[in-house]
Amino acid sequence: MSTALKSSRNMEYDRFDELRRSIEDYESVKHTIKTGLQDREKIARQKEKIMKKLGASEEQWNDYKWQLRNRFTRAEDIRDIIGLTEDETERIRKVTEKYRFAISPYYLSVIDPDDPDCAVKRQAIPSFEELNEQGELDPMDEEGWTPEELVTRRYPDRLIIKVTNICGMYCRFCQRRRLIGEHDTHAPKEKLKKAIDYVRNNREIRDVLITGGDAFMLDDATIEWMLRELRSIEHVEIIRFGTRTPVTLPQRITDSLVDMLKKYHPIYVNTHFNHPREITEEAKAACEKLANAGIPLGNQMVLLCGVNNDKFVVRKLNQALLTIRVKPYYIFHPKTVKGTSHFWVRVEEGLEIMESLRGRTSGMAIPTYIVNGPKGLGKTPILPNYILFIGKDKAEFRNWQGRRFSVRNEIR
Ligand SMILES: *Cc1c(COP(=O)(O)O)cnc(C)c1O
């Protein structure tokens, strides 16, 4: 071997050592942040307990309608399953007088009964802090951007249709708390028809997002009817669904649902995982079913204090999502919705997470961090600054490790 080659090999050895060292902090803690797959035995034990309590069969458990009918809505009923104290139970009861509470038996089984700060529990089980009066009911002014009932249109070429206010589980940080009343309702067909007519009458709408509540709370027949109507509109190019069912009610993703959806391609599904623990056997199967039907899956995480405001939790989550064929799409900075102030985080925390992802994991695992402008100013991307200087003939940057470089910034 030539001396030159040898010394370049030695240099490269150091170089790779440096790469390895740049993620050794993550490597040393990642096993402590368990996915639902990694904690499957405990989740299976919880499932057994809940099934026994409800006298349920495996077949019932796997039926999403059974899961919906058997959602828990009272603290007393889940107390023994997740080990709530008497104090906690009483507080939850108080909160549920004001805000809707429901959790599917499945999602309840994912809560770690040994961890009082479990990230799944924090998302699903009411907290006394919800009675804090800070924040607004509708900080995004959705009401002000409604050209037709059910429709929110904030952008030129796309809009959302809110088809229901029902969910498999009512997230404690819900941005549409104002619409989640005591009464579960799907939008009546006449109103859906009017929303679709709005799309038909506005030729620049090429992307329709069906959401809620949870879009997949509609039954297959209603979803198919909407898809057929939308596909009869020539200018509609893509149709997206916003649904948390792969996370909170994976039994909803049935063979018949995906066989129907795939007739109306291009269809996209954006779902909402917030923590690695939510990636269970069932959630994985649901996502794979959708992906196998040719439906690209995106994840819209919400950055939440006490759930995922931790760079290693987010790294683990995003890497695990890619293994179940879900592409991290957005990280949303939490909105200042009334009753959710205990979930708020500072912008610096989100920026630190974004900084720690770039370079240290697959670009595929790096979503866009979004802050929503108040009053409907819209989704605005924020990212750490990599630009140091842009001049007449050169531009200067820093890379993910903080090394500076410049590129020529004049053509010819
Ligand atoms: C989030 C949102 C969309 C979709 O935004 P994308 O950036 O295209 O994913 C569309 N309309 C409204 C009103 C929204 O809030």
Radius of gyration: 23 Å
Count of separate structural domains: 3
**What is the assembly state of the chains in this entry?**
single chain
| CATH topology description of the largest domain | TIM Barrel
Number of helices: 16
Output the structural class.
Answer: alpha/beta
Q: What do the pLDDT scores average to? A: 95
Largest sheet: 9 strands, mixed
Order of helices and strands: HHHHHHHHHEEHEHEHHEHEHEHEEEEE
The shape is: globular
Number of strands: 12
Give an overview of the whole structure:
With 412 residues, the protein is an alpha/beta fold. The chain folds into three domains: 40-125, no CATH class; 143-381, Alpha-Beta Barrel (TIM Barrel); 385-412, no CATH class. It is 37% helix and 14% strand. It is built from 16 helices and twelve strands. The strands form two sheets. It has a nine-stranded mixed beta sheet. Strands 10-11-12 form a three-stranded antiparallel beta sheet, with no helix packed on it. The longest helix has 20 residues, at 3-22. It is globular. It binds pyridoxal-5'-phosphate (PLP). Pyridoxal-5'-phosphate binds at residues 152, 154-155, 158-160, 209, 379.
